[in-house]
Structures are given as structure tokens and as C-alpha cells.
């Protein structure tokens, strides 16, 4: 594991860093690197700095508690780039929220914001290019998550599972070039998409996809 701080000149001279963060890191014998950045750094250059220190197949967790206000927007772009170019992914977007009434700070993981972009991008690929792999993979993961929550396969997500199978078959038959099988599969897919139970399951289990009306 590698820990990297991106710090401006003011951040490095701030009491929080000098009297609290640095001594605590030293006390726990935590190795880390510091990358100096300017307060006037452009979004483009900051994105370059982040991508420069991330390697192939990395899993990245980012703390945005004291980051630039525009930083969360950069994460959306960085996440898409990392997946495509480096087969890496952002697995955590952490934010320290202070609760005044309890005088405590809780670390909250807001990574779900990236899940919305994944669903939207997968839906776009399917609608515009008939590329089904991304959407089928996301549905498979979602079904697995629901199954693990309940300990068994829920009846309510059978239509989603049918959609996943149809998408996987469509991708296979497109590569195979089988016209007859493609016709059958497309008919099955259209029937599945128009099914009321399927629409209910989309709204219930995949709200990210519901507005898309795939």
C-alpha cells in the first residue's frame, strides 16, 4: 500500500499538518510521500499529477475532506480513464464529516457516486453501439450483491437475470455472426425490456439505470 498527500504550500504550513497529521503518521510508522502542488494548479494539470502516480491494476482510495472544491468532478473523469487505460479503479472516496453534537468525525465512503457513471456509460454503449458486455457485467454484480444480502436467489430479480443472459447471448451471437440466433435473441431481449416486472425490478434494484429506460 502506498500513501500520497497532494499538498499546497499553505497546507504544508498549516497547524493540522504540522502538529497533528505528521506526528500521528510518524508515531504509527506510516510511510508516505508528499507531492507539492500550487493553489492555482489547473484541473488538467492536477489530473495529470494524480494519474502519474497510479499504476496498472491499482485500487485507489481518495480522501476529499480537505480537497479543492472542484476535485470531486475530476474524480469522475479520472475513474473512467483509469478503467480504460490502466485497468485500475477508484474503490473509495472518503469524506470526514464532523458531528458537532457528538464532537466526533466519521469517515464516510461516497464511492457510490461513481457507480452512477458506470451505469450511465454502460447504458450509452448498449443503446448507441449495441455493446452489451459492460451492462451485463454490472447487472451480474448487482444480482450477486442482492443474493449475498438475502442468502438466496430472490424471485424479484429473475427478470434482471433474464436480461443479463440475453445481453451476454447478444454479444456472443454478434461476434459469431449468427443471423438466425441474433433474431431470436433480439426478440427475447425486446420482450424482456417491455415486461412490467422487469421495469419494476429496474426501479427497485438499479435506480441508476431507471431514468435511462434501456
TrEMBL record:
- As recorded in UniProt, coiled-coil segments are 143-170
Q: Does the keyword Coiled coil apply?
A: yes
Q: Print the keywords alphabetically.
A: Coiled coil
Q: Tell me which InterPro entries the record gives.
A: CRISPR-assoc_prot_DxTHG_CS
Q: What is this protein called?
A: TIGR02221 family CRISPR-associated protein
Organism name: Thermosipho affectus
What lineage, starting at the top, does this entry show?
A: Bacteria, Thermotogati, Thermotogota, Thermotogae, Thermotogales
